[in-house]
Design a protein that fits this description.
The chain is mainly beta. The chain is built from 4 helices and 45 strands. The chain folds into 4 domains: 166 residues, Glucose Permease (Domain IIA); 156 residues, Coagulation Factor XIII, Chain A, domain 1 (Distorted Sandwich), CATH 2.70.50; 111 residues, Chondroitinase Ac, Chain A, domain 3 (Sandwich), CATH 2.60.220; 82 residues, Immunoglobulin-like (Sandwich), CATH 2.60.40. Strand 6 and strand 7 form a beta hairpin.
């Protein structure tokens, strides 16, 4: 990077970083009236996103009353099969918005509005916005009860605090440090060395390599340009959970070369986790390494590096002393060190092939027979030399396209077009784009137009076109209990997934909740079921290719 460009970028990052950390002098009360403990903290590393809030433990039970943390009004309520499950968005008078997820129950006045919408529109999923002050709650007033709904695998409350004007996520823990004790420092287990492509070498190889901090005889001989990364977690008093690390600083020969401070991010920065962490390592091995390097296309503001972006030049035959300092929000810290020995060794030059070479700072178009992928500027975090391969099968619906043999993330959805040359099914709504990954298939959806399937993707990989003509699977559960209102089904779809479902009892819409974590449907209001009579029930489940399964039952 040009030095003047870097100085300007650094100044902007520092200014933005400072603004993210300087919070107004406001206060929030705890959401519960019992001692607070956390199962998840702010900035924890998650698939394709940072954890945007705190996960409060609820003493192993659901149904804990949630107090409003500051005066405000409900602006939005959502109900989804996964994600937050049932959630409340509360706009506070002090300039912040809190989000509360995985709820089991809303306050009666909110629940009444939500249920009316669900029955009127014959849908379980809800995303409702309310005018200011329609549902107003004072500080300390109960507006919901905690649960285990949505993508949750144990009772807890997920709570976020955002700036209302910008929707920026900030760390809620800063408001509760006097309520939660923490004297435990973060700990690291491994570090990674990244020889820079065509510019550096480690132990005779340009491949990355991980090492254990517990290893006593680690051999690290490098030459040229390298970068480092670390696998580390934070911990807290009285729990066995691991958390994200608030701050990571790397020093080389006592000079700071990189620092990350996880204290805030904007919604459009969320996927930048894939630029900061080692995306390939996570996808292939489910292992989180945080890079101590700012990739050129990384937009996340909370990373600060020297003029080389965290890349270290090994150009002397001597010992280079690397030191990591890990620190949590409370100031608990721990240090880890290792030595890289400078040893001159040959570095194989890198000569990228122009046709399949993607630049991070420009628009890229990948095209071939029956293929077009458009990647706008800002979608790549670094240059990519595609290991591209076209597989032709005249009997297949389309050709199969390998756009790189290792997972490469895209910052947002990019348009993919694949030509269809075989039409065994005349109904074009049954065609969809599929990704092949680690022996599994994942639907990307899409639509057919003028001989092409159009879809959007967020990762370079292997794609082709498939056909789905099979309806979803519907399995009735616990039939003997149906007369009591305990009516349940398991629904699933092997190819494109469940798009919608409806259940009717005696010709009237019946509200059933759907949980994506166990694929179960369960009747929401069994009290509406008339007792002592025979009922006729119809269930209709539809997948994303329009295949429908319709079942009828009498009970």
């Amino acid at each position: 990077m040009n030095i003047y460009k870097w100085i300007g970028t650094l100044a902007m990052m520092m200014a933005l970083g400072a603004s993210a950390q300087e919070q107004p002098a406001v206060s929030f009360i705890p959401p519960f009236d019992f001692p607070l403990t956390l199962s998840g903290n702010f900035g924890e590393l998650r698939s394709n996103h940072f954890h945007g809030g705190l996960d409060f433990k609820t003493q192993g039970a659901v149904g804990k009353p949630i107090r409003n943390i500051a005066d405000g009004y409900v602006s939005r309520v959502t109900v989804t099969p996964g994600g937050y499950g049932q959630a409340v968005y509360m706009v506070h008078d002090n300039g912040y918005t809190s989000v509360h997820g995985h709820l089991i129950k809303f306050a009666p006045e909110i629940a009444q509005e939500v249920e009316a919408y669900q029955y009127e529109n014959e849908t379980f999923a809800v995303d409702m916005e309310f005018e200011p002050n329609r549902f107003r709650f004072a500080q300390g007033e109960v507006f919901a009860w905690s649960g285990n709904e949505g993508y949750s695998f144990g009772p807890h409350l997920h709570m976020e605090i955002r700036k209302t004007d910008t929707d920026e996520y900030i760390d809620p823990l800063q408001f509760y440090m006097d309520k939660i004790k923490d004297t435990t420092a973060p700990r690291a287990t491994h570090f990674m060395i990244y020889p820079q492509r065509g510019k550096g070498v480690l132990n005779g190889s340009q491949k990355k390599r991980s090492f254990s901090f517990a290893g006593k005889n680690n051999r690290l001989e490098a030459w040229g340009e390298i970068a480092a990364g670390i696998k580390a977690y934070d911990y807290m008093d009285g729990t066995h959970n691991n958390y994200g690390v608030h701050s990571v600083t790397l020093y080389v020969d006592s000079v700071e070369v990189f620092r990350s401070t996880v204290d805030g991010f904007l919604p459009d920065e969320n996927r930048a986790i894939n630029a900061w962490t080692d995306y390939e390592e996570y996808v292939m091995k489910n292992s989180w390494f945080m890079r101590s390097q700012v990739l050129p296309g990384n937009p996340w503001r909370m990373l600060k590096a020297d003029e080389n972006g965290g890349v270290i030049t090994i150009d002397e035959e001597r010992d280079y002393h690397f030191r990591y300092e890990l620190e949590d929000l409370y100031g608990n810290s721990r240090t880890y060190s290792f030595v890289v020995k400078g040893k001159e060794q040959p570095i194989e030059p890198w000569q990228p092939e122009g046709k399949n070479f993607l630049k991070w700072n420009r628009k890229n178009v990948v095209w071939d027979l029956g293929l077009q992928l458009t990647i706008p500027e800002g979608m790549l975090y670094d240059d990519v030399e595609l290991n591209y391969q076209l597989t032709k099968d005249s009997a297949a619906v389309s050709y199969e396209y390998q756009m790189h043999d290792a997972p490469v993330p895209l910052h947002a959805a990019c348009e993919l077009m694949i030509g269809v040359h075989e039409f065994p099914v005349t109904d074009m709504s049954k065609y969809y784009v599929v990704q092949k990954k680690k022996g599994r298939r994942a639907s990307m959806g899409g639509y057919f137009e003028n001989g092409w399937m159009h879809a959007t993707i967020r990762e370079l990989g292997t794609y082709t076109v498939a056909i789905d003509t099979i309806g979803p699977k519907v399995v009735p559960l616990n039939k003997p209990q149906w007369r009591t209102g305990n009516i349940q089904f398991r629904i699933s779809d092997a190819e494109t997934g469940i798009k919608s479902y409806k259940v009717y009892i005696d010709g009237k819409f019946a509200l059933f909740a759907f949980s994506s974590k166990n694929a179960r449907l369960k009747m929401k209001h069994p009290e509406r079921l008339k007792k002592g009579v025979t009922h006729k029930m119809e269930i209709v489940v539809t997948d994303y290719c329009g295949n429908e399964t319709r079942m009828e039952y009498t009970f």
